[in-house]
Amino acid sequence: MVFSKQGNIHQLSAKIQLPIGIEKAWEFLSDPRNLKLITPAYMGFHITSELTNVMYDGQIISYKVSPLLGIKLNWVTEISNVNEPHYFVDDQRFGPYALWHHKHFLKKIDNGVEMMDIVHYKLPMSLVSNRFHRYLVKPKLTEIFAFRSRKLNELFGFYDDSQEGV
């Protein structure tokens, strides 16, 4: 996992390789109902909107989530771009961040798929909240994405790169 920053915009990049096909990875990741499985339970993640079976551009999804101290927050995202089975983008429309732009990429590799997440985010009240980024936000995002990687490995297995190019 890599963090960087340009001005008040932070970036998180995370990558994982799984021993499954791109279609199976897309089927799992493009279904918002699976977010609960790959989110730590203490966050109380709960989808509050009606969902369709297919992800589409312009889809609005609303959640309740408790990222800190059990405080329930509403979070509304829009699926702003879908290119099945290669990538989709979700943008926060309402929630805890001043900006949240999350790109999910899938790439076929030897014996599996590589998933890459790139998140650009900005904290509200940047002058004050950026001081808490290092001690609160960054560790929390690291924990959430590490949990997600562990859970995906539990569900789909560990990628074995010793078989690449064989």
Walk me through what this model shows:
With 166 residues, the chain is of the alpha+beta class. The chain has one domain (2-161): START domain (Alpha-D-Glucose-1,6-Bisphosphate, Chain A, domain 4). The protein is 23% helix and 39% strand. It contains two helices and eight strands; from the N terminus they run E-E-H-E-E-E-E-E-E-H. The chain has helices at 22-29, 126-156; strands spanning 2-6, 9-18, 46-47, 59-65, 73-83, 87-94, 99-109, 112-122. An eight-stranded antiparallel β-sheet has the order 1-2-8-7-6-5-4-3. The radius of gyration is 16 Å and the shape is globular.
Strand and helix layout:
Blueprint: E1 2-6, E2 9-18, H1 22-29, E3 46-47, E4 59-65, E5 73-83, E6 87-94, E7 99-109, E8 112-122, H2 126-156
Task: Supply the key terms.
166 residues, eight-stranded antiparallel sheet, alpha+beta
Explain briefly what this protein structure is.
The chain is an alpha+beta fold and 166 residues long. It contains two helices and eight strands. The protein has helices spanning 22-29, 126-156; strands spanning 2-6, 9-18, 46-47, 59-65, 73-83, 87-94, 99-109, 112-122.
